[in-house]
Amino acid sequence: MRVSLVQIEVDPDEPVRGRRARAAALVRAQRGRDLVVLPELWPVGAFAYDAWEDAAEPLDGPTAEAMSAAARDAGVWLHAGSVVERDGSGGLYNTSLVFDPEGGLRAAYRKIHRFGFDEGEAVVMGGGREIVTAAAPFGILGLATCYDLRFPEQFRLLVDAGAQILAIPAGWPSRRLEHWRLLARARAVESQAFVLACCTAGTHAGVEQAGHSMVVDPWGTVLAEAGPDEEVLHVDLDPGQVATVRAEFPVLRDRILGLPDPWGRTGGAL
Which of 76, 118, 156, 194 is the most buried if burial means most Cβ atoms within 10 Å? Predict the structure, then answer.
C-alpha cells in the first residue's frame, strides 16, 4: 500500500483560494498512490479562530468540490484533512472528509474533542458525537483529528469498529512536538494499527506548527517522519501487518470490560 502525507504549510498571507488550488495540485501529483492524507483545517488554519466564521462552508462547498475533483483526477483515496463546516442551522464543526478515487464523499467525521478548554475551538465549534470509519480496499480507516489523539478511549472504539489504519490530521503546535510524537506511537501500539498522523507546517494566527508528520506501524515503529517545513511524505506499508501483529501478540483479546468503578459510577472500561 502506497501512502502520501501532504504536510501543507499554512501562510497567513496566502489567500484561501490559492492554498486550495495548491493543495489540489499536490494531491494530483500523488497519482499512483493508494491513499493521500492532508492536515487539519489547512484551508484557514487550526488557530485562526477569528477567520472561521467567514471561512465556514457546507459539506459540498468549494473545498470539498476541489478535493473531490483532485481525488478523481489522481485516482486516489483522499483524506482531505478537515474544514470548518457550517451545518444547516448555522453551527460550526471541525469536519474531516474522505473521498474515494471516483471523487465520491465516503465519510465525514466531526471532531469529537475540541481544543481550547474555555476558549477557541472549544467555544466556537460544536463537537461530534459519532465514531466514524471508512471502508477502503486496503483496509478500514478510523478517523480522528488532532486533540482526539490525547483520548485513548476514542481509539478503542475505533478498533472495536474494525479500524486497522488510523488517519489523524492535525494542526499541532511546535511547542508540544514531543507530545505529538509520543502520543502517535502510543495510539499505534495500544491499537495495534497503523497511524498516519499528518500535521501542518507554517504558522496559524501566530502559533508555530509542529510539522513532523509521521507514519507509525502496529509495533510502534516510526516508518517515516517529516521535518518542520512543507513536505510530502511517501511511505509503502503492508496492511496485512495489522492482522499479523494482532495474532502474534493478542493483547486486544485480553481486554477486561465492565470493571467495577471504585467511585460507584455506572459503566466500565472501553
Answer: 194
C-alpha dihedral over 66, 67, 72, 75, to 10 degrees? 140
C-alpha cell at 109: 467525521
Instruction: Measure the CA–CA gap between 225 and 112, rounded to whole angstroms.
Output: 26
Alpha-carbon gap, residue 144 to 152, rounded angstroms = 11
List the grid coordinates of 94: 471541525
Which of these is catalytic: 40, 121, 230, 231? Answer: 40
pLDDT surpassing 60 at residue 185: yes
pTM given for the model: 0.95
Tens digits of residue pLDDT in 97-139: 999 999 999 999 999 999 999 989 999 999 999 999 999 999 9
| Catalytic residue chosen out of the listed positions 9, 85, 121, 146 | 146
Our answer to whether residue 146 is catalytic in this structure is yes
Report the candidate in 236, 229, 231, 160 with the shortest Cα–Cα distance to residue 194.
236
Helix (H, G, I), strand (E, B) or coil at 198: strand
**Amino acid identity, position 135:** A
Helices (H) and strands (E) in the chain, counts: 7, 15
Mapping DSSP to helix (H, G, I), strand (E, B) and coil, where does residue 182 land? helix
Residues 6+ apart with CB under 8 A from 258: 268, 269
Domains of the chain: 2-254 (3.60.110.10)
Q: What is the distance between the alpha carbons of residues 112 and 188, in angstroms, rounded to a whole number?
A: 19
> Rounded mean pLDDT of 63-69?
98
